[in-house]
Design brief:
The protein is an all-alpha fold. Helix content is 95%, strand content 0%. The chain contains 1 helix and no strands. The protein is rod-shaped, with a radius of gyration of 18 Å.
Length: 42
């Protein structure tokens, strides 16, 4: 039973780390897109 709980906890930790990286990457992409729009408007 302890192994199952440990495996689930490990899976949850890895999932949350990868989700943070995905959100951070999406934020950077949106920022770059906004900068491109501003340059095009100038």
């Amino acid at each position: 039973m302890k192994k199952i709980i440990l495996a689930l906890a490990l899976f949850a930790a890895i999932s949350s780390i990868s989700a943070c990286e995905t959100v951070a990457g999406a934020g950077r992409d949106l920022e770059k897109a906004g900068e491109a729009v501003q340059r095009a408007a100038d």
